[in-house]
Amino acid sequence: MAYGNCYPKPGDLIEIKRQFYQHWALYLGDGYVINVTPVDEGAPSLSVSVVSIFTRKAKIKKQLLKEVVGNDEWKVNNKYDRSRTPLPVAEIIRRAERYIDREVSYDVLGNNCEHFVTMLRYGEEVSDQAKIAIGSMVALGAVAVASTVLVRLIRGASREKDD
């Protein structure tokens, strides 16, 4: 089910809302997209992150948009156009077609589906969701360190009172 602009043009980025993350594909035309899928041929493309996280491998496939989307919501989202210039459409499609059926390395934070499609569209890998995840991990780490320091300070003050 589409939300927002549901008439993609070749070279457009397609954002698909999954339960815990956004999956990204690039529209090729005639109802087809290119996207990162699990290496396991039997695994549905919906499970790309779960399967690929553990194998650190993924496969690039050309599939019908409706098959990739399933029952999830999707929209055209060329959000990086505000800060980057898209390559010419013919170049985007040419670059995309070279990847079809290739196995690639996969890393949720450094080389995910959003990185892949932005590399095709702009010639530069970008992923806001990876930046947000990294920022969250850094923040959690900082909280953990601060908590540890605070506990040690409290324990130290408590021991000084006992002496």
UniProtKB/TrEMBL annotation:
Membrane-spanning ranges: 132-154
LRAT domain ranges (all copies): 13-129
Cross-referenced Pfam families: LRAT
Keyword NAD: no
Keywords associated with the record: Hydrolase, Lipid metabolism, Membrane, Transferase, Transmembrane, Transmembrane helix
Family: Belongs to the H-rev107 family.
PANTHER family in the record: HRAS-LIKE SUPPRESSOR - RELATED, PHOSPHOLIPASE A AND ACYLTRANSFERASE 1
Protein name, as recorded: Phospholipid-metabolizing enzyme A-C1
